[in-house]
Amino acid sequence: MALNLLKLCVGCDSVEDLEEWIEFRLDERRRAGEPAEHWHTTRMVPTRGAEITDGGSLYWVIKGNVQCRQLITEIRPFTDDEGIGRCHLMLDPQVVRTDWQPRRAFQGWRYLKPSDAPVDLGKGKAGLVEMPPKLRRELADLGLL
Question: What is the C-alpha to C-alpha distance for residues 104 and 100, in angstroms, rounded to an integer?
């Protein structure tokens, strides 16, 4: 079974914000003549990389809830200009919405077993995707989502 990662999506107020940011960054790279790749940079390199790249995803915590995920396609370790080891988590730019799952704030990333990961929103819950983010948040705060 593939292993997942869990990370706070700092600076995004909604899944829509994340999607807009991804599209903006991809457009920037296209205009610069660079490959239109999407990644997230992190300080620590996951030691269980083979399990993660075998179908694992990066689950994003937005405003206290896991709300979506992106498939991790590759892990690229590198050393930055200051000599600090880091890695790029190469991500599929498609954002997959999930059931909301409350999470407390934490630093860095965490491993997330498939059995603990929220399920993807299915066709039966398509209306949740179309619901305004503010309304979804209020319903989640009330424990109705």
Answer: 13
Buried b vs exposed e over 37-58: b needs ≥16 C-beta within 10 Å?
A: ebbbebeeebeebeebbeebbb
CB 72 within 8 A of CB 89: yes
Q: Residue count of the chain, please give it.
A: 145
User: Tens of pLDDT along 35-57?
Assistant: 999 999 999 999 999 999 999 99
Q: What is the dihedral of CA 31, 33, 38, 40, to 10 degrees?
A: -100
Dihedral sign for Cα atoms in the order 89, 92, 95, 99: negative
How many C-alpha atoms does 97 have within 13 Å on its Cβ side? 19
Residue 28 CA to residue 34 CA, distance in Å, equals 9
Give the global pTM: 0.85
d(CA 52, CA 130): 30
Contact (CB, 8 A) for 26 and 36: yes
For the segment 87-93, the average pLDDT, to the nearest whole number, is: 97
